[in-house]
Amino acid sequence: MATSETGPSIFVPRSRKVRILATLGPASNSKAMIRKLAEAGADAFRINMSHGTHADHKRRIETIRALEKELERPTTILADLQGPKLRVGLFEGGSAKLENGKHFVFDRSNVPGNAERVELPHKEIFSAVEVGTRLLIDDGKLVQRVVKVSPDRIETIVEVGGMISNNKGLNVPDVVLPVAALTEKDRADLVFALDEGVDWIALSFVQRPEDVAEARRLIAGRASLLAKIEKPAAVDRLEGILELADAVMVARGDLGVEMPPEQVPPLQKQIVEAARRMGRPVVVATQMLESMITSPSPTRAEVSDVATAVYDGADAVMLSAESASGQFPFEAVTMMNRIATSVESDPSYARRVHFTETLPEHTTADAIAQAAATMVDTIHAAALVCFTTSGSTARRISRERPAVPLLVLTPSLKTARKLGLLWGAHAVRTRDVSSFEEMVAKAKRMALRHRIAKGGDRIVIIAGVPFGTPGSTNVIHSVRLVGDELERHRAAEAKAKV
Known about the structure:
The chain is an alpha/beta fold. It has three domains: 19-83 and 180-352, TIM Barrel (Alpha-Beta Barrel), CATH 3.20.20; 92-171, PK beta-barrel domain-like (M1 Pyruvate Kinase, Domain 3, Beta Barrel); 364-497, Pyruvate kinase, C-terminal domain (Pyruvate Kinase, Chain: A, domain 1). It has helices at 31-40, 54-71, 123-128, 184-195, 209-219, 232-236, 238-244, 252-258, 264-277, 300-311, 321-324, 329-345, 349-352, 364-378, 392-399, 413-418, 436-449, 485-497; strands at residues 19-24, 44-48, 76-80, 95-98, 103-107, 117-119, 134-137, 142-150, 153-160, 162-165, 170-171, 200-203, 224-229, 247-251, 282-285, 316-319, 383-387, 406-410, 425-429, 458-464, 473-480. An eight-stranded parallel barrel has the order 1-2-3-12-13-14-15-16, surrounded by eight helices. Strands 6-5-9-8-7-11 form a six-stranded mixed sheet, with no helix packed on it.
């Protein structure tokens, strides 16, 4: 991929600051559709490892990387690992009807089940549940409560009955299960995704910080790690998970199964707030525009739901089936973009997005980031320009939710791609600088070239000295742009070539 200084094609930053993460699938497999989604507003693409083969995923990744070169826009790819899937066994005739108030048994026998019993092929559950534990079947449509448990048998009372069929999913919300977040399938998928150069790994079935630590060990710095918060146990240990993860996702679908649905909205706000305080990007996901799977327009409630996530200051909002398997993937991304743009145009947005207090840590880098966000307001700067190698400086500045565009200049394509989930960041891969004078000149030139500022505007520049050293943010500088500066630079380049 060419750097931004090698050709005339320059991609203009989106005016929208919240990011859009679109899931790819059967409805969005083609290069033409993926390109349409990117042009409609998708900043990052999710590869769902629960469906499809490695060959399918490889084709999608190659398509994204080819489009990245054509569009000259670093594009983020997130591989979402499936995680353990707890399921019941098989039934005679394929299904059975469970009656309210009746006894029902889960056991270790592989004999096909009936209205009285069924196999539960997960020995870990037998050792974890206790009397009073709830077992939820088929996304919570059926509810049983444990009345007696032994190493090979769990007796329950059916509290909410209905039809149960082969291999339906099982949730156990009331206990921490002794089940690893990474299955053998996940480990194979992880190796594949890392070898294909994805930028983020999403970890499912997180219950404890140790799950995140194990995934981080296996990733070994080859990608960033996003922890999906989808279980009550993860909510209870959120701070520890945030300390180890690079980002988190509010996976509201699974949370809404394992917890009363009315508890999910306040939990969403709490998770977003905690992530923002700790400087971790946070994605809000699941059923955001669900009706657009089959309809070209969303419900008003869905529009309000997306808007709420944007007002709360989420870094990104995600489309799942809407863009992966729905009938209107392009329209779904377009609508998400329109909603976010409208919210950010609201005069009250800037005030609302700062409701969460993000106190700086006692470091020079945090002090510089906080000062820069204040400085742009004080001097009415048009933009912030950040030089970074690892992306840490950009994350610190984004945490402050500055009111102006954030242009991130990095020599690392890997870093530029990872920043696609970061609020407000417009990442550009460009050659590194070696002196203060070169830094100022390049910041001015790139701000003009990428149209985030114009002649006469002030910009604020943040960098670290010595240049090219990760984690050395210690410079803040303001400068005014000259109108013909970019033209003069191009003329000098042309003369030098002659």
